[in-house]
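Run log, item B.
One chain of 486 residues. Sequence copied directly from the ordering sheet:
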Amino acid sequence: MQPFEIQNILAELTHSINKTPKDILPIAASGSARKYYRIVTDKRTLIGTYSENTEENEAFLAFSKHFHDLGLNVPEVFSVNKERTCYLQSDFGDDNLFAHVQKSLMAGGLGENVIQLYKQALKHLVKFQYIGHQGLDYTKAYPTPNFDRQAILDDLNYFKYYFVKPHEEIDFNETRLGKDFEALADFVSQAPCDFFMYRDFQSRNIMVKDNELYFIDFQGGRKGPLNYDVVSLLYQVKAQIPQAVRDELILYYKEELKQFVNPEEVKFDLYQPYFVYLRLLQVLGAYGFRGLIQKKSHFIESIPYALKELKTWNENHPLNDYPELQHVLSQLSTLNYPTTLNSQLSTLNSKLTVTINSFSFRKGYPDDFSGNGGGFVFDCRALPNPGREPEFKTKTGRDWEVIDYLMAKPPVHIFIDNVKGIVSQSVENYKERHFSNLMISFGCTGGQHRSVFFAQTIYEWLKATYPDIHLKLNHIEQKIKEETGL
């Protein structure tokens, strides 16, 4: 479904709750196919969500109502369309726990204020796992109601197919590795699992608003063990929590857990090392799928962090009972991924990359390989068109004749000034927040004159105005013509 169609549905839903939308703004997505929008009304903002996966939507809607009724800090759902593809929910803002982690790491390490936020998150987690579990309808869970032996095998095979196999330099015996996976799944599936398992309990899904924490993206939840969510939070690879701090936080979690269940009775410590492996291998599988297969760069950038974390864990907790898996793990450190993790955070300290495209609307929008949602798309078709003048038919927006033609038109200067104002606001904000990618695209009918001119102009302006950013310039339609001779 096209964005304008989704916005129309969201506008109707907003009117259905007696609110008038003043603006509907897309929010950059991450790894999922769901589309998010911030809906601005007179007195508040809402989050509009669109997904064609109605089973997953039903899981979120059922879980959200259950948790909200219990007083847990989750979004309230205000309206759902009859097709169950769009819904409105509470907006907790843009500040999340991971942003606090980033700021703290930039200052030299996790500060006490961030550690306190982690403790607050763990306190809430216990409530989700025990109180949230009571009376929850797991028939709504998607894609499975239980984190059972098969789900464990699915995660292990996810790692094998999307991370190990794409690296042909990793040598392994698939039959023996399969037997190790079976044995590991047999053991881990014995962990007590009569609790709610959030599944993706990590700092980006924990929002911070008015010094309180709120929790989103639990639609993958299911019945399962306690350890998995604790590991998901504390072993999130880019957070780089020191092991001593993790140990402190795990002790805190177990003290909170004692309100409801004795950690020794559920053998929490026995299973903990194996859940660290499961989560790290599942994460590498996700990075392989989203990064190596789908070519989303920010997932590729995360791979060195996960490899480093897994290497350290394996050195201290070798899997001697699973020799073929251990053989695979021992080879991961030889993979050639650039790392600058010793003294600096590569992602936080890297330059902002701004990608500028010219393209033809007839051929479709440019692909966003960064996975950050595409940035800006400017439509140049309302401006004077050199392509209608016979003398410019074989020229492009880089030729001085076309440049002179466009620069003589007053609407062109208004357009350039407006673009500079919008783009500069984002560039400065992205630099301050240590974002890694922004894409700016200019489209016209043929991708030859106006779009090329504006992409080139903004490229030169950014190059002069922001010498500390990295720029990429792609004249997509012209590149196709150059390569094909058409």
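Observations after the first pass:
- The chain has 16 helices and 13 strands.
- The chain has a mean pLDDT of 90.
Flagged for discussion on Thursday.
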